[in-house]
Amino acid sequence: MLSRFTCLSPRMVAVCCSLILAILLVACGGGTTSTLSATPTSKPSPTPTPTPALTVYPGKGYSIGYPQGWKVTSSGTEVDFTDATQLYHVTIILDPNPGGAIDASLLVNTSIGGIKKMMKNPKAESLPPTTTVGDESWVQKSVSGVETYNGQDVDFRLVVMSDNHPAHATNTQNFIILYGTTNSGFATGDTSYFQPMLKSFKFL
């Protein structure tokens, strides 16, 4: 069991790193058509538009709605949803977990610990320890912190949540949902994007 868990944790941290890098590149003016500046400049807070109609994504054993116009990137049992500005990210990861042998809270705690090691001034954000998604209780934690990229400090916030479904069966899957954006845009992004997507999530 322990060896399997140590394989899962680095994968989760790697996903977090990719998410963080994507946020940093865009927040700092990166991308394929622009050049990063070595001089820090202030960036306006992203302002989401009102929640658009959701398009249903049929995953393996679940479905979730995502805003029209968002990019969907799928690889194996992992799928990432990103808005056009690439500032808002929602990632879903599935891993076999027969019998629910690995507790969801253990995976969340280890993932948050790995994320904190990549940050300057990491701070645990206030969040209820559990939340209901797809009519089941998920463990969740949130962290914010600063990363320096090309001379610029970017403050961002991430939420990691996990659930084993079905709870105790030979075919139990561990579900991870990770979402985040810059700290300044999190509140509006949570209202306009993240929560509507979570409310649309269904186990199939």
Describe the structure.
With 204 residues, the chain is α+β, with helices and mostly antiparallel strands. Helix content is 28%, strand content 39%. The chain has 3 helices and 11 strands. It has helices at residues 2-27, 104-116, 183-200, and strands at residues 54-58, 62-67, 71-75, 78-82, 89-96, 120-125, 130-133, 136-149, 152-165, 173-182, 202-203. Strands 3, 4, 5, 6, 7, 8, 9 and 10 form an 8-stranded antiparallel β-sheet that branches. A hairpin with a 7-residue loop joins β9 and β10 (173-182). The longest helix is centred in the first third of the chain and has 26 residues, at 2-27. It is globular, with a radius of gyration of 17 Å. The model is unreliable at 1-8 and 31-42 (pLDDT under 50).
* Computed structural class: alpha+beta
Uncertain stretches: 1-8, 31-42
Task: Give the strand tally.
Answer: 11
Termini, distance in Å?
Answer: 27 Å
- Give the ordered list of helices and strands: HEEEEEHEEEEEHE
| Number of contiguous helices | 3
